[in-house]
Amino acid sequence: MHFLLPFPHAVPHSHVCLSSRDLLQLPDPPPQRGVLCFQLKEKRKKSFLGTRERLNGPANTPRAGRGDTRERDYRRCPAAFFNAPFLGQPFPPTPRIPSQRFSVRLSVRPRSPPRSSALSEQRPSRRPRSGSRRGAPARQPQAGNSRSTPPHPRPPPPRREAPGRAAAGSRGRGRADPPEEGKRGGGRGGRAPRRCGLCSARTRGRRTGWARPREAPPPPSLGAPRPAPPRRSGQSGQPDAPLPRPHAARLSRDPAPAGSEVPERGKMAAAVAWLRRGAWGPARRCGLAAARSYSGGGSYPNVSLTCPLPGVPKAVFAAAEGRERFETRVTVLENGLRVASQNKFGQFCTVGLLINSGSRHEAKYLSGIAHFLEKLAFSSTAQFSSKDEILLTLEKHGGICDCQASRDTIMYAVSADAKGLDTVVNLLADVALQPRLSDEEIEMTRMAVRFELEDLNMRPDPEPLLTEMIHAAAYRENTVGLKRFCPVENTDKIDQKVLHSYLSNYYTPDRMVLAGVGIEHEQLVECAKKYLLGVEPVWGSAQTKEVDRSVAQYTGGIVKVEKDMSDVSLGPTPIPELTHIMIGLESCSFLEEDFIPFAVLNMMMGGGGSFSAGGPGKGMFTRLYLNVLNRHHWMYNATSYHHSYEDTGLLCIHASADPKQVREMVEIITREFILMAGAIGEVELERAKTQLKSMLMMNLESRPVIFEDVGRQVLATNTRKLPHELCALISKVKSTDIKRVVTKMLHKKPAVAALGDLTDLPTYEHIQEALSSKDGRLPRLYRLFR
Predict the structure, then answer these.
(1) Each residue of 44-62: pLDDT tens digit?
(2) Per-residue b/e over 216-247, b at no fewer than 16 CB within 10 Å?
(3) What letter would DSSP give residue 681?
(4) Which residue, 306, 423, 638, 735, could crosslink 624 as a Cys pair with Cβ 3.0–4.6 Å?
(5) Under a CB-based contact definition with an 8 Å cutoff, are residues 50 and 31 in contact?
(6) What's the whole-model pTM score?
(7) Alpha helices in 188-245 (DSSP H)
């Protein structure tokens, strides 16, 4: 396993424990050169193959020694730190280090001077090359080698004698001194004392126990001319003189006297001591992150993050141009069509047509026309021969299409790349105003409607069917109480003529809104004028005759459906037989001020299934969970719903339990309705308001949800309340507002929907009497025989 660790700098005589990722985050190197000696010892005691590489030497030289040791002549510093032009030597590659921790020992030695041919003949190599004997002279460097000649050569200092080293074959890590008298000498039989590569001071051990230097003055300037190093005894031309001890200069706090020559090793030691005290000190005390002067390791050191970077142009930020970017803009065209847009950052956009039409407007028509139109959407038109051609056109812009029909709105929507806005608006106009409605497509729609009706009756989750039943009970035979799904008996009666009659009355420009999210308003208005202004629909432009403008009339009542729910499981695991009850009371429309208190009340009731409550924020602390699901283990479901329309609303609770406990389940629901008007804790109310605002903001992060919210609000009020306005209204709700709307709601007749085994279901009069009582209890029944 080969490791290449190009350290930015070396720390003398230090022993630190670093993670492998921290090795690349050390500060910038000081202005000096040296040999980086380090040891890697993995905590799992694995050894690594060691190498010794001289990046500016004549060649790589193998080194004998322990397997976990490496030594490099390191030169990764910029050329300005060398007082010489860059030599063009390759930088070491960036290492890939595993995420383990290593024990790293670092030391710095002065770089050896370049070897000349004469010097190579006098001194032996540190280690003989393969095929040579110990003590043999080293091979001379090749002529013309650019790596062996520095740009500004200096005369190399005369070599000192090292008889003990020559005899020993140069096995030591550093240069050995002549053996002292009375001590073991430098032959094969003895080993010279180990000395530091910086100051020739004896170390305490073979690889450990380095002396820790004390504070030192700032490093001497490396730009000054370097004095010749002192010579030892035995070298020609100089008398015997003791070698200066750089430790003395390092341990002294006073600078060197003027005129005194500081040897090269003294300079190196002083620079290293400054590095350790100034640059490496914070890293040892506070960690590597504190020692870094800047995070990126780029070319802008010592620049505060609050100041602009030098040489970088000033940033230009987008301005709102005097208008809030999140404000919804609305434009009304000449034919009455409203164009609304909401700016949102992103590559894709959602554009669609919302039409004030739905099942509530089918009082004078066959029920199920809106259901048929939903299934016929995005079929063949005047420009597109089939639905496949429409889908292929959208795929060119990465788009998808969908149509949804509710009780009061039909919505055609497309999500695609914003660059294809022109194609999307053209497609929407063609689908809504010029559908072919061929006999073949109508027959396929009849089959799809029949299949969906069968699926509703076989589905284990009866929520869509119960919602249909509770609306039929609350608004009997009027507006939102009309059937949303097409009855089976009407599937064969709806044809092209019936559809064109309905479309001519309700698919008019004054009942439409073109909404878009993620596009510019001016561009959307231009496309609307191009494709939706002055367009002749396929059913003609005759004046509308029969438009239902009736207002919803709440009646109350009960709808019961006896059904065997014992075998509704779609898989091998059986589902227990349950009876489903839904009780509702009239609330208010979304145009009234009491709409916000009703929304907070619905969030406070919360609830869910026995396995769907989740954790905090998902219904765990709501009333139906704490008071119903937690206390009555036999109840499988207890959920609150709030349906709100333009002129009315409905707050209801859905519960499921075993058929034998239907009466007790109904009493629990009526009791919860009565407790709504009771005391409301401040913590409970604040939690409900916070959860409602959180759900509102979370849902409005989705582009399709924003589109639907913009379209529905503009369709009903010609404007839109922004999210922060809604949050402000939610924050103003008080407990007195909740009590007021609940008291008003309890005076209305209840609406009841029951599905399943209804043997023990209380009568409608008993349920109404329980909702009128103080405790919500059903009247007691006294039976002689059970």
Answers:
(1) 433 333 333 333 444 444 4
(2) beebbebeeeeeebbbbeebeeeeeeebbbbb
(3) -
(4) 638
(5) no
(6) 0.62
(7) none
Report the C-alpha gap between 32 and 576 in whole angstroms: 81
| DSSP structure string for 37-48 | EEEEEETT----
Closest by alpha carbon to 150, among 219, 227, 73, 220? Answer: 73
- DSSP-derived letter for residue 279 is I
Whether 514 and 340 have beta carbons less than 8 Å apart is answered as: yes
- Residue found under tokens 């050894």: 47
CA 544 to CA 354: how far, in whole Å?
19
3-class SS of residue 17: strand
Nearest partner of 505 among 548, 547, 551, judged by Cα: 547
- Dump pLDDT digits (tens) for 161-200: 444 444 444 444 444 444 444 444 444 444 545 554 444 4
Residue that wins the pLDDT comparison between 37 and 507: 507
Owner of token pair 């008080």: 734
- DSSP state at residue 14: E
Can you tell me the distance from the alpha carbon of 81 to that of 604, in angstroms, rounded to the nearest whole number? 69
How far is residue 439's CA from residue 377's CA, in Å, rounded to a whole number?
A: 14
Structural domains in the chain, sorted by start: 329-532 (3.30.830.10), 557-772 (3.30.830.10)
Residue 741 has pLDDT above 80, yes or no: yes
More confident residue, 342 or 317: 342
Residue 97, judged by CB atoms within 10 A of its CB (0-12, 13-18, 19+), counts as middle
**Average model confidence (pLDDT) across the chain:** 74
Residues 718-725: contacts with CB under 8 Å, at least 24 apart: 718/330, 718/338, 719/328, 719/330, 720/328, 720/330, 720/340, 722/326, 722/327, 722/328, 723/326, 723/696, 723/697
In the DSSP assignment, the letter for residue 222 is T
